Amino acid sequence: MASRNRKRPRADDPPQEHRPSKKLRAEGRAQSSSNFAPEFWDNLSKVWLTPRALRELDRRNDARPAPKPLAPAVHTADLARFTRRGGLDLRHLREYPEPRDAKATTMSPKVKKASAYDKNFEQHLADHDIYLPSPNRQAPRPNLDNTRLLFSARRPSLSDSCFDDSAFEDLLQKNETESEGTVMRNVIPIITGNASIPNEGSLPFTNFESLTGDLTVNAAPDFFDGALPGDVDKSVREDLRQIIIPTTHANVPVAPNFFLEAKALTGNAAVARRQACYYGAHGARAMHALQNYDEEEPVYDGNAYTYSATYHAGMGALQLYAHHVAAPTEPEGRPGYHMTQVKAYSLTSDRETCVQGMGAVRNARDLAQRHRDEFIRSANARARQSPNRTSSAQEAKSGQEA
After folding, report:
1. What does the alpha-carbon distance between residue 137 and residue 4 come to, in Å, rounded to a whole number?
2. The organism sits in which domain of life (predicted)?
3. Where does the pLDDT of residue 135 fall: very low under 50, low under 70, confident under 90, or very high at 90 and above?
4. DSSP 8-class letter at 335
């Protein structure tokens, strides 16, 4: 058994050149509430035309010094000769900034709040090897045959006697809301069931080491499952504290590997999928770190141990995804985090489809818990058998006897 060296880089650590400086971290956090830091836009391999991109363009234009106007040319009063030469010279007006004291008219349209999870955020994820499902991209896919079979298992809690037509009609009525908070309070508990799995939601993952350079926003899933902190050995928690412990709040579940993101009637389904991809990458990294804890070389087995779901109340659309980690494609490169669709259901179409979808979510939660518990047990066992741990315990015992 190889001894644990806490200074040894983890398999999921980004290369040294990809790690943000403290100054960059501070700037990224300070600007994420209104728009991303300038470094975010400078580092994108492709910039998409989104409201946030236009906001950054406006900011940069405002910061540019006003150009020195050229003296207008003097032209003859002979109209024919004047037009033959191309007309009035307006070059001195090029790039002339809008007056800073210009006032918006009362007819100006109201600016709609732009989501942080737009196409440029998706591009930023891809630039950091975090990928959404795409038929146009050749990507390693996990074997999901057994996963789909497990997702389809029938649940006694969703039998005809437990979830009848009246229960289905009640779900449809509660589903008719434009409030995401109402969906989370009234609809999601029906879908997820009442399993005794530690869960939490709407808490920013401020303790996690950034997967993308800390230039965007902290992950903050609507709902996530994890383990009780006390179930993880103290040494494992300390060694992987920025990989498996999402927040510094006491008693918040750790090592999360099931996530759910919900949208109301007017919510954006594409945004929900990007959020699920982002959160699922954090979960996949946590599972991979536990799986390879105290190992000399990381193992990339290509299996998915993290799952996510998105629910759009407006369409009744439930999507389930698997997330797995792939080995770096080049030496000293980053691991790849891949999102793959597993199943999809329309919960509002009929009771039978609704039961199948809700059963798949509950089965996914159970399967995620089995993966999580297995990796935690293995990591705990390796931590307790570590020579470093044994030596420390013996030294402490000798000190007490003395």
Report:
1. 38
2. Eukaryota
3. confident
4. P
